[in-house]
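Appendix B. One record, verbatim.
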Amino acid sequence: MTTLDENITRLKGHIARFARDGIVHMIGGADVAGPDTFETRAPADGSLIASVARGGPAEIDAAARAATSAFPAWAALPGAERKALLHRIADAIVARADEIALCESWDSGQPLRFMAKAALRGAENFRFFADRAPAARDGQSLPSPGHMNITGRSPIGPVGVITPWNTPFMLSTWKIAPALAAGCTVVHKPAELSPLTARILAEICRDAGLPDGVLNLVNGMGEDAGRALTEHPAIRAIAFVGESRTGTQIMKQGADTLKRVHFELGGKNPVIVFDDADLDRALDAVIFMIYSLNGERCTSSSRLLVHDSIRPDFERKLAERVARIRVGHPLDPATEVGPLIAGVHHEKVRGYFDVARAEGAHVAAGGTCAEGPGWYVAPTLFTGATNAMRIAQEEIFGPVLTSIPFADEAEAVALANDVDYGLAGYLWTNDLSRAMRVSDAMQAGMIWVNSENVRHLPTPFGGVKASGIGRDGGDWSFEFFMEQKNVAFATGAHAIPRLGV
């Protein structure tokens, strides 16, 4: 295992060119600097990583035009050839996985132990959708009296992809890979707080032979570059990952051009622990699903609903474990929780410590911030809470867990559903009948029973209520990036009504 010092040395080798030359757009296969810039800084100490080209309506328009120009040839390319090219991209991601992991850890504050896996998951995303590219257009034969109906699919056209700052590389590939496999061209606007690996992905795709204009990268802020993308008439659809409030803004901005939208939004996900569960395994899962990745992920289980009969002992063990979680430098292999993404987010998360105390909850662990440089908060556990409290209703998006007791199954379901969100849910019980009843009653797009969040790429991923619109994964991704067409052939002497005879 490498040491912190070794990782810092390797990181410097990877980011030296960005520190020297900055991070620029990629439009139509060409590097474009632009007149305006902003900075990306390391969450660990606030140091400057690189200057970033700040795009706006002009750059978005140029990228949309490049994507439009490249679309006919890319859409017409046989699926087998798209498959081969996307596998070359996956191979290149694996070859540069170390670079991706180090850069993303430094740019986002996520511990390196998780970013190494995220980089490889990006390659898996490309391979999965590459293998489906040859069959992307396949349809059905649907006979009806007097007709044979033949369905088929075609790529919708140039699309916009807007990705977040948490695990940005994996989430970018999760959207871009199926879009390319379907035959769409892409304009990618990554989050301004962690733009580094989006640039690396664009370079990988170009170097692998992706035709110019098929993938375009424009950096910038949501209020200018993001808005220009969602309003551009040449962009047929927007795939967005981020907070729910931004999703509502994008829907409004795309209304005039009737944009198709796919939203993977926020969550306030419950993990329900019944008294008949394997409590040791449940404890491990509860801790992992909120404190890994700094708690900065939409599927984190930020509400613990625990049965009254086991609550005191479960919370005691939980508080002891939370207090031992290792907080530190994101490139340190021993670090389990790193710094939060930026100062403004740090202030938001730490503000909930005061909210919890004012609402009458008990801070059983954490509730503090580290002194010195960097945006660090201690992993935190609130107990003595009710579901009506802000700490139980609002997405904190940090390493913060709120524990809420329940008396019976009906109350557990009611508490689980009593939020605006509905992305994911987690359930721990050894009663199969109960697992079936409760998972069916929970208002969420994804439920894991006796498990943490384990992704299976062919399955649908997405939420309900304020947690999103649409599904990723398997054929669901192609349904978003492609249009359905039906052609009806008359099979006999079909009687046509005669008018005007």
